[in-house]
Amino acid sequence: MPPLDALIAELSEFIAIPSVSADPAHQGDVAAAAEWVAERVRRAGGAADVIPWGKRPLVIGEVRASHNADSAPTILCYGHFDVQPPDPLDLWSSPPFDLVDRDGWLYARGIADDKGQLYMLLKAAGLLAAAGELPVNLRIACDGEEEIGGHSIVDWVAADERGADAAIVFDSGMIERGVPAFNVAVRGLCYFHVTVRTGTRDLHSGMYGGASLNAMHALMQTLSAVLPRDGRVPEELRVGVVPPSDAEVAGWAALPAGRAEIAAAGSVPADPGAADEFYLRTWGEPSVDVHGVQGGSPVLQKTVIAVSAEANVSIRLVGDQDPAVITDAFETLLREAAPAGSELEITRLSAAPPGLIPSDARAIVLGLDAFEEVLGVRPLLIRSGGAIPLVSALASRGVATVLTGFSLNESNVHSPNERIPTSYLPLGIEAAAALYRHLADLG
User: Which of 12, 39, 257, 320 might form a disulfide with 240, Cβ 3.0–4.6 angstroms?
Assistant: First the structure.
């Protein structure tokens, strides 16, 4: 293993590229990050291409096994090289695209999600290949639009005829420090933009208040139709929910208390039953959230009746829920709730199905052995509340995926001061190398 300073210096190059996929101004940076990834595959002795695919590139590459490549198993490695926007910048303790080692933590946008973790997979491959000890064929497939729900990687999987014997994704985290976890299910996602219009121009609230339809009121009334009550979304949005088994629920009871998890995130329970049902609600239940609302004058004192209001809102999917079915139900609920006279426009911005990985799959068992060898503890089998379209696509093709990672609840993922423990950088590289060695037994 190279010295820690050398690892940090190399990773700093990757982190410094502000590959914010949500901002069109950073489209060139997303392309630069793709080239950085491709170059690391080439330096490992492999081949890689940056492939234009829609609006953002894919990196597709391969590093062949050091020996007996024709008979060695093939493992697909995925990570994304785009990152969340860094704002609000004034809440960062150091510049978001400078990798800073401070008080036992590595700070930077993307260090946990997902550049730092993708780097672990790439570096482990490079080290094993350089030593002539890479025991599997690695296929590298990375995208630059995961943070905006892009489908290019899913489309690539659908078109790919080669497949793989298993897959590895480092884009998750531990239950708590020293307690690793493998995610055997991911939630899906449908993301919508909703716009309500109620007239041709803003009006004086003294002259028309109480008589003219207010777009902000209309939007709130419309959205109320899909919001959860006591932790459950409307029945129309529950089609396809598969309850977790009793064994799963019993295992979740051994995890840190939900109330403590919510408090550690600096939040409060959504309702009196939320803390006790924390894992069920975040892993086994669909959830609806409003992510942003705009309209009228939320800052300046301005007495107007707004003519237009808009919001971003999404629903997380579980079990066997079909994004198309849920989209239809979602839109129907909104249209039925919109007040008479309002004009409602609904645009689905992205969608991804949920995915389930058999917990007894050979690749999962071998992966558990590998992590136990390096970390000294066997990972817990849990579910993920997030949506990773590639995992769902691979699950539908029967490719067992080791979905794990080295972030923590306090890693501030998607928030200012994103971080991982400094010691987890070399630890993650060691764990990735052990995964490659153990998965060779699939052959």
Answer: 320
